[in-house]
TrEMBL record:
GO terms for molecular function: metal ion binding. Binds 1 copper ion per subunit. GO terms for cellular component: periplasmic space. Residues 46-63 have a biased composition (Low complexity). It comes from Halobaculum halobium. Residues 96-182 form the Blue (type 1) copper domain. Its cofactor is Cu cation. Keywords: Copper, Electron transport, Metal-binding, Periplasm, Transport. This is Halocyanin domain-containing protein. Its main location: periplasm. Residues 32-79 are annotated as: Disordered. It is found in: Periplasm.
Length: 182
């Protein structure tokens, strides 16, 4: 009875001793390792990480539609942007002008579309949300400012690139779009 207890205790002690030896060896290894990588003692990385985290947190709500690209922020405040709609290979692509979005009928539908070069995009007015126009940010096209349902405006995209455009009266509300030409 007494000896049973005694031998149990001894083997426990032996085990602890082995762990202690292993632990010491491990610590020695760690110390050596950290000396190698211990060159950088600038505090800049920490600050940068903090700033990045803050910006990410701020960006997440507006970029919530996980479309990936936001075209340099052009579509950040466009609440009907839900990724770039792929229409490559289509001969003709239609985009609605006056889609329900951005607090009224102040959207292009879809807000972002991808087409092949040589494609003609036709914007078609829904007649909702008063007068709209379609004006390229780079000045390459500009439609009339009209409200009439069924009105159309077309532009053929000959070369690859990204063209941002907006409805000038409602640009501040988020009535903006993008055509990505491949
Ligand atoms: Cu408009």
């Amino acid at each position: 009875m007494m000896s049973d207890h005694e031998s149990t205790r001894r083997s426990v002690l032996r085990a602890s001793a082995l762990v202690a030896v292993g632990g010491a060896a491990g610590l020695a290894g760690c110390a050596g390792g950290s000396e190698n990588g211990g060159g950088g003692d600038e505090e800049t990385p920490t600050e940068t990480a903090t700033q990045t985290a803050t910006q990410t947190a701020t960006d997440t709500p507006s970029g919530g539609s996980d479309g990936g690209e936001s075209f340099g922020g052009w579509l950040d405040d466009v609440d009907n942007y839900d990724g770039v709609v792929d229409e490559t290979g289509a001969d003709e692509v239609t985009v609605e002008v006056g889609t329900e979005a951005n607090g009224g009928y102040y959207g292009f539908g879809p807000a972002a579309v991808r087409v092949s070069s040589g494609t003609t995009v036709t914007w078609e007015w829904t007649g909702q949300g008063s007068s709209h126009n379609v004006v390229a940010e780079d000045g390459s096209f500009e439609s009339e400012l009209v409200a009439e349902e069924g009105h159309t405006f077309s532009h053929t995209f000959e070369s690859a690139g990204t063209v941002k455009y907006a409805c000038v009266p409602h640009e501040a509300l988020g009535m903006k779009g993008v055509v990505v030409v491949e």
